[in-house]
Amino acid sequence: MTTVLDKPPQPSASPSPDTRRPRARGAGGSGARWLFLPPLALLLLGLAGPLVAVVVAGSEDHGPAGMFTEPFRNALFLRAAWRTLWMAALVTLCTGVFGVLYALALGLARRALSHVLFGVLFLTFWISLLVRTYGWVLMLQPQGVLDGLAKTLGLSEDGLGLYQTLPGLIPAMVHIMLPYMVLPVYAGLRSLDPAQLRAARSLGAGEWLVMRTVVLPALRPGAAAGAVIVFVMSLGFYVTPAFLGGPGSQVTATVIGTEFGRMQSLGGAAAMGVVLLVATLGLYVVADRFLRISEQWERV
Fold this sequence. Notes:
Elements: H1 37-69, H2 75-108, H3 111-126, H4 129-140, H5 145-152, H6 166-190, H7 194-202, H8 207-235, H9 239-244, H10 252-261, H11 266-291, H12 293-298
């Protein structure tokens, strides 16, 4: 007896034109093209428009070539640029250390404590940058919280004197930049295969050896992505350095703000802004080319 499986396959009848389902339109079909208009308009008005206006303002005063060379003739801009570079590097280093420790704490903590740590971390996103900066001003200003605590503990009779100094500015910037380091590092930690940890322990590796040979290499791509993001954002940071940095600790963004506000030099401020923008984009493109930063952020 032959079964159904033994029968040769019968050619299927082609569906009639009346019973065929219409082909679904792709995302780029004419019916959905209007969906691209709002983001396109936002991109043109919110990003491209201001950038074009800045470039035009810089070119009118100094010319296309002079727009890139004129800022380097300004001694104040050069000092601020050098100060911005090493300050961004220091902030990136400190944020990297605390960010890795915080991510490890998130991964090792119990569920309830992990939720608390996540809540504290995301408060830096939910609370306004200006409000957080004002909080640091209240802590660091003369007769503020830290000065009162130092006097109470007998550490200093005159206070710590951290207001509008680089030692007071660095912790504030690290606090604000911390989530941009923690999130990619934590994403790398979550992608770690537990079987690797069990295999390493079964082979006799101790906790520190497992950490050094298994855990930390898994965190390295996320830490590199976070470091690039923190460094690039620190180059253009304005609000916190403007409030917590003193006259001798001006960064590039505050110099541009002074040039635009007090000096009323729109062309000079625009030229400095274009130089800062090109340098920042160049650094990010090079880092993304070699470290694949965008791929790391897709995992967050």
